[in-house]
Amino acid sequence: CLLSNLFNSQSLLEQLYDGYDEEYDCPILDEDRVVDELDNQMREGGVIVDYHGCDFFPERWFHIVFVLRTDTNVLYERLETRGYNEKKLTDNIQCEIFQVLYEEATASYKEEIVHQLPSNKPEELENNVDQILKWIEQWIKDHNS
């Protein structure tokens, strides 16, 4: 998760919340504060951002965007196992059906840098990691010459 990896302390993480959403049973992220907090680190480069949305992140931050896609049956089981309430579960499934995150990514960034990767089985996770690592290696090679 983006937040747990980039922020060292729970108190700093809590400063980025702007309330609590009872309906979805989760904290509300103050997106402006997140961008302000991450901007210097992102300018330095070498950061991988892992988050379930992207439209509030500045375009200048990214050279490539990967959107993980999951079959709705697999997704339903994952979210049910996590204990998501019915509204949150249904909304997440609908987002996957209607490709909301992919469309958000292509609307927020140049379409040629947005890629979809399947995320249904452990083998696909391994393939995705391999593909992302190959992209990183190639990007480094292309930009260090």
TrEMBL record:
GO terms for molecular function: AMP kinase activity; ATP binding; ATP hydrolysis activity. GO terms for biological process: rRNA processing. InterPro entries: Adenyl_kinase_AK6 (IPR020618), P-loop_NTPase (IPR027417). The keyword Protease does not apply. SUPFAM superfamilies: P-loop containing nucleoside triphosphate hydrolases. GO terms for cellular component: cytoplasm; nucleus. Keywords: ATP-binding, Cytoplasm, Kinase, Nucleotide-binding, Nucleus, Ribosome biogenesis, rRNA processing, Transferase. This is Adenylate kinase 6.
